[in-house]
Design goal:
This protein has one domain. The chain is built from 14 helices and no strands. The relative contact order is 0.15. The N terminus is likely disordered.
């Protein structure tokens, strides 16, 4: 089998590779193989998102069963959710806020985004997003948190996969550039998988929630293209947070 054939195949190991990249959960991953397969393992991102969301829902319900207030359950669930993902999407959101609005040109903006320090734009944006997400999490008590968060977890990671294929890299290094551009088969499987998960979790309204998630992630990529010439790992992370917030609000409203 040649290298090109290997690139076009979907492997079960891709799921472990995606979990290893998107979370801090220890899984039996072959890191050498995961590196080779990274760009095409993106088909599994929505599945990993659904697993993360379902785990968050289980945590929320478990805490609530102890008689704790919804607000406290929401705060702890949000904290553990950040721990599970390593806060990579929150980090991307803060870095984009600092870089996009703190730099005078694309080169300087990329430098700011690469800096591990957080500035006032990043801090304010992150705080506001966390407060908004916490307030929405509180309302999950009126729904089934496991199904709701599983669906949102899948949908909010679909824009990342699509952007990795169609939005150019803003730099030649970094996480997104290292992973590479997914082939179309990975994109198609990610889309189909997301639709199936959304249908299971939300019924027919899941299609509308997917559309909302994509629409709210789109401005992140439009601004990124204008500000830095394309997408980076930080931009992908920020798009996930925008899609997550929009789909969570939509799921609670529908």
């Amino acid at each position: 089998m040649n290298d090109n054939q290997k690139d076009t195949l979907i492997e079960a190991h891709d799921l472990w590779a995606a979990i290893s990249l998107l979370t801090r959960i220890s899984v039996p991953v072959d890191h050498s193989r995961a590196g080779i397969r990274a760009k095409n393992a993106t088909w599994a991102y929505p599945i990993v998102g659904a697993l993360i969301g379902a785990l968050s829902g289980i945590i929320f319900l478990s805490l609530n069963s102890l008689g704790l207030s919804p607000g406290f359950c929401a705060a702890i669930t949000l904290l553990l959710l950040i721990a599970i993902t390593g806060g990579m999407h929150e980090d991307g959101l803060a870095d984009c806020a600092d870089g996009f609005w703190g730099g005078q040109n694309s080169v300087r903006r990329l430098e700011i985004m690469k800096d591990s320090s957080i500035g006032v734009y990043g801090a304010c944006t992150l705080i506001l997003f966390l407060i908004a997400q916490w307030s929405l999490f509180e309302l999950l008590i009126s729904q089934n948190p496991i199904w709701t968060l599983a669906g949102i977890g899948a949908i909010s990671r679909l824009p990342m996969v699509i952007a990795m294929r169609f939005v150019p890299n803003a730099r030649n290094n970094g996480l997104s550039a290292t992973v590479g551009k997914p082939q179309l088969i990975s994109i198609h499987i990610a889309i189909i998988t997301t639709f199936i998960i959304a249908l299971i979790c939300f019924g027919i309204s899941g299609f509308l929630i997917i559309l909302i998630g994509l629409l709210f992630a789109l401005p992140v990529f439009v601004v990124a293209k204008a500000k830095i010439g394309g997408q980076t790992g930080d931009v992908l992370g920020a798009s996930q947070k925008f899609a997550e917030m929009a789909t969570l609000a939509a799921a609670l409203a529908l």
